[in-house]
Amino acid sequence: MLKIKGLYLPMLANRIVTGDVFFLNSSATNTNDDPGNGKDPTKPFATLDYAQSKATSANDDLLVIGAGHTETVTGAGGITFDVDGLSMVGQGRYDSRPTFLMDGSAITGLVTAANTGIENVKFVAGHSDIAVGFLVTGKGFKMESCHFGGNTTNENFVNCVTGSAADNDCDGLELIGNVMDYGADIGPINPINLLKNSKDVRIMGNKIIADLRTSPYAAIYSVNTEVHTNIEIGYNMIHNVHNANSVVGISAGSTGSTGWMHHNIVYALDTNGNTPFVSAATGIVMWDNKFAAAANVSAFQMPTLGTYAA
C-alpha cells in the first residue's frame, strides 16, 4: 500500500493501481465466473472473457492472472482485448506462467480497445499455420515478457503480432521483451508485421527464433509503402536459419518514415548478398546493428560504418 498525502493506493505487480483489481485463475479451487468472485485471489474468475466483462472502461483497472491458469481459445477473435485502459499481468515464472492455447486457423486474438496491455503469459499455437496471433487495431497496446510457441510439431503461428487494419490504428504499440520461438517449423512465417502507417511504435528487446524461408523473410517487417514516424526498433535478437539471399532480419520504413534502428543482432545462414537490416527511409537512423552469418564467430556491424567529410 502506498500513501500519498493521506490517500492509500494499492500496489500490485510493481505498479500503483487507481482502478479496480480483479483476479483470474482457472487452477484455483474456488474459481468461478460469478459476480461474487474475482475480487479475492482465493476466489478468482475462471475465464478471461468473463473477467474482462467486469472491468470498467477507461478506469485503469488491473487483471491479475494467476500462475497455473490455462485456457483454450477457439475461433477468430477467441481472445479480444476490448476494455479501454485494462492492464493484464500474469503471475508465475517459466512453465507456471498463465497459458492460452490458441486453437484456430484465422486471427485468434484481437486488440480493439485503447491503452490495454498484457504481460508475462504464454500463447501456444494449437493449430497449423494460425494466420495471426494478435491483430492490433487499438492504440497504445503494450505486450511485454510474453512467449509465443507451438503446442506440438507443425502447430504454429504464421504471424504473432500484426498492426494494423487501417492507418494509425496501432499508434503507440509496444512489443517489449517477448519471445517468439517457432522451433523447427518451416511453414510461412512472419513474426512481427506492420501493415499500415503508424507513429510512436516501439519494438524492443524481443527474441525471435525461426526458419524464415518464405517472403517477406524478415522477422520484423513493414510494407515498404507505409510510413512510420518516431519508430524505435532496438536490442532485438533474431535467430534465422534461412540460407538464401533475402532480407533476413529487419525491414522497416518507407522514404517518409522517421525513427531509430539500433543494437539489434541477427544470425542467419545467408552468406551471399545478405541484407539483415533494410530501411528505405532516410529518416530512420541506424547504428550498432550486428550480423553473424556463421557459428562460432563474432558478429560484425551492418550496415557498414558511414564516413563524414568535414
Reported CATH architecture: 3 Solenoid
Number of helical stretches of at least 4 residues: 1
Strand order of the largest sheet: 5-6-9-12-15-18-22-26-29-32
Poorly predicted ranges: 1-7
* CATH fold annotation: Pectate Lyase C-like
Q: Describe the sheet with the most strands.
A: 10 strands, parallel
Beta-strand residue fraction: 35-45%
Summing up helix and strand content along with how strands pair, one would put the structural category as mainly beta
Approximate shape: globular
Supply the number of structural domains.
1
InterPro entries: Pectin_lyase_fold/virulence (IPR011050)
Organism: marine sediment metagenome
Protein name: Right handed beta helix domain-containing protein
Task: Give the SSE map.
Blueprint: E1 2-4, E2 7-9, E3 11-12, E4 15-16, E5 21-24, H1 48-53, E6 62-65, E7 70-74, E8 79-81, E9 87-90, E10 99-103, E11 107-111, E12 117-119, E13 122-125, E14 130-136, E15 142-144, E16 147-150, E17 157-163, E18 174-176, E19 179-181, E20 192-194, E21 198-199, E22 202-204, E23 207-210, E24 220-222, E25 228-229, E26 231-234, E27 237-240, E28 250-251, E29 258-262, E30 265-268, E31 277-278, E32 283-287, E33 290-292, E34 300-301
Parallel strand pairs: 5-6, 6-9, 7-10, 8-11, 9-12, 10-13, 11-14, 12-15, 13-16, 14-17, 15-18, 16-19, 17-20, 18-22, 19-23, 20-24, 21-25, 22-26, 23-27, 24-28, 26-29, 27-30, 28-31, 29-32, 30-33
Antiparallel strand pairs: 1-2, 3-4, 33-34
